[in-house]
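Q: What does the assembly look like in three dimensions?
Context provided by user:
Components: two
Sequences:
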Amino acid sequence: MAETESLCIVVVESDPDRARLIVDSLELSGDHEIIVIAAESALARRVTELEPDVVLVDIRSPSRDALEELALASGPLERPVAMFVDKSEAGLTRAAIEAGVSAYVVDGLRPERIKPVIDAAIARFQMFQQMRSELEATKLALQERKVIDRAKGILMKARNIDEDAAYALLRKTAMAQGKKVAEVAESLVMAAGMLS
Amino acid sequence: MNTVELSLGYIPLVDAAPLIVAREVGFAEEEGIAFDLNKAPSWSMLRDMLAHRQVDAAHMLSPVPIASALGLGGAPAQFDVLSIMSVNGDVIGVSTALAERMRDAGFEFGFTDAEAAGRALIGAADGPLRVGVPFPFSMHAELLFYWLGALGLAAPQALSVRTVPPPLMATAIADGDIDAFCVGEPWGSIAVEDGVGTLLLPGAAIWAFAPEKVLAVRKGWAEDEPDLSARVIRAVWRAGRWLDDQRNRQIASEILAREIHLDVPAEILDRALSGHFIVSGAGEHRSWPEFVTFHDGAAAFPWRSQAAWIGNMLAARTGLDRQAAMQAARQVFRSDLHRRALSSLSVDLPGASEKLEGGLGEPQEVASQFGSLILRRDAFFDGRIFDLSKTE
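A: Here is the predicted structure of the complete assembly.
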């Protein structure tokens, strides 16, 4: 295979939005043929039929194990697929795993041809991870605010005070106990639930 | 003793119980270790997490470290096996369509006779038999090759063993991608609950004492951390002993059922832990006492002969030199490290580190460090005996 020839890349991803973002990133890394497989069943057979140079799969996907079988393929028409880790410096592999993507690469491809593709995939998956943790942080903040609002309501009713005074009381108690306002609010809501 | 944190990886299965129990019942704490348990999405991911130091010890399919030692598959590192985490615990099931054909031919799904079940299965197959297993290197795959091979079904012409991740097994059967499966619990019982499978046999009906999952670490880690590794071996060993007290099995189901662990109803987990199964959509009951073993009969002891058996099987189907493969495999099961770790507990361990595999048709007393120890029945269904001294 000539060095200038484009690579055939298979992306295993069931979420169409994520798949499109991955494809966009990979297209920037070179002129490649990119195929997305969404369905997880019969994955090994489909990948074998496509004969890709590189397969990218989310490490959270259980279907990754089906790809391990390809490393054993040894029939005359089958091309052995090796795990990327065998072929490259460990740093890149670890970066890929930490970003949440694993790459399977056909035996015999030169690492410098693969690197731009893997780098692009890593960058994209890092973004996914960041988005996920931001989403979780937002969810948590929202949940905390709800609890604090409920605790304020309970205090306002029980002690006949206004909202600012209720929040001040929560904050003062939290500081005195070395806890977060949300934690104090949660205890209060739970205790109030038991008393009512 | 200072408490050290240790990261461990596992797959949410019934046989991860020793790690989960070691943490939840306090055996890890007793050894001064805080177990940080990390659930992995796949066996390949778990192997890579261990290889790349994201965890320091892992629940692993017994053939995986041996395959790595033989250079088979994606092998990013070499591993040492410190203990056997579980013996037996796999279950074989067939699709509803295949089950019907077997019943039509007069088979009654007795759940005990591997030869009768195998002949009924082969007789009812139309075309090559396609069987799903969780991983290319697994006791599931080796038991299938051994069992159906002995009954005359040759791979790959008449038998195709395919990797199907257990969460996708039900879909694979429903889509007609596979005719049968061999999985660890709770996945067999989940297939029954989903109405897509009928359970045919426990793995133990093929080999009565098969090393299923192991406690694995990166090669050399135990030597670099002699104290910590010994403490891990002891914590997991004590958890196994607790688990094999049948009175604790129900509590174990409750612990494993929790959302942070298996997140599967305790009622389903009870089936594997009690050995009482519902095998079909019609609600038929079948039992196999001691379906999964964690401790009794020196279950945790990593016999080098068990490793050699696995090495021999892997070599036979991948065309490697069998002698060399058995030699390499023996080095992976670290009976020496296991022995050393337990020496402080006055635990009775086998005197030898190798035995005949399949030699015991009945439980038998064998020589041990403090006198004698009872080993369990370990026969193969066809009565063959694997004798390491005669393979050389």
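Follow-up: Chain A has a mean pLDDT of 82.
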